[in-house]
Amino acid sequence: MDQTLPPWDSPAAAARRPGWKTLTLETQFENPWLRVEKSDVIAPTGNPAGYGVVRFKNRAIAVFALHDDGTVPLVGQMRYPLGTYSWEIPEGGAPLDEDPADGARRELREETGLVAGTLVEILQMDLSNSVTDEVAVCFLATGLSQAEIEPDETENFEYARVPFRQLLEAVIKGQVRDGLTVASVLRVHHMAVTGELPPHLCEAVLARD
């Protein structure tokens, strides 16, 4: 992905911006997936402050699987933090030293049983960047074939395969709220509009009922 500055920014401006200065740092909690830190800091304004940060040990991975007929497989599950049921594209975590594409293929297989003939990175994201350092990589999977589903022991899924247009409308109406799903849906729609997808997929994504 292009890591250069956007057109409204400049290297000179970036170089003169003040940063944060860490004075003290303590680990408040840690498990195999994350670490919670408490710090005393000096803010870019020069004022002292306290800060709490969640440091993730995995990279978030999302896979937008697109069938040739324009349908999209979704996974439904109860999400513990919000206590709500969520329909999402296949998602998970990959260790920071793992190739994100390998993690994406694994998550797609585990949650849907699908194997991608083609896997392309389409988006990178910073998630809740005011309180965490979690980053995400989103992929588009096409040329799909079916194998066995391999969920882990804490996952209890429902499955749906929906037309892209229905999913896009559900995102716009706020019926599908998962951030990685929302961003990936909008990115794939943009790819169809701009012709970044193969012609038959552009036609399938943009088709109306």
Q: How do the strands and helices of this protein lay out in sequence?
A:
Layout: H1 11-15, E1 21-30, E2 34-42, E3 48-56, E4 58-65, E5 71-79, E6 84-88, E7 91-95, H2 100-112, E8 114-126, E9 135-146, E10 158-163, H3 164-172, H4 179-193, H5 199-206
Parallel strand pairs: 4-9
Antiparallel strand pairs: 1-2, 2-3, 4-7, 5-6, 5-10, 8-9
Helix pairs in contact: 3-4, 4-5
How would you sum up this structure, described in words?
With 209 residues, the chain is an alpha+beta fold. It folds into 2 domains: 11-56, no CATH class; 58-124 and 133-206, Nucleoside Triphosphate Pyrophosphohydrolase (Alpha-Beta Complex). The protein has 5 helices and 10 strands; from the N terminus they run H-E-E-E-E-E-E-E-H-E-E-E-H-H-H. The chain has helices at 11-15, 100-112, 164-172, 179-193, 199-206; strands spanning 21-30, 34-42, 48-56, 58-65, 71-79, 84-88, 91-95, 114-126, 135-146, 158-163. The strands form 3 sheets. A 4-stranded mixed β-sheet has the order 7-4-9-8, sandwiched between helices. A 3-stranded antiparallel β-sheet has the order 1-2-3, with no helix packed on it. Strand 2 (34-42) and strand 3 form a beta hairpin. Helix 3 packs across helix 4 (179-193) and helix 4 (179-193) crosses helix 5 (199-206). The longest helix is centred in the C-terminal third of the chain and has 15 residues, at 179-193. The two termini are 34 Å apart.
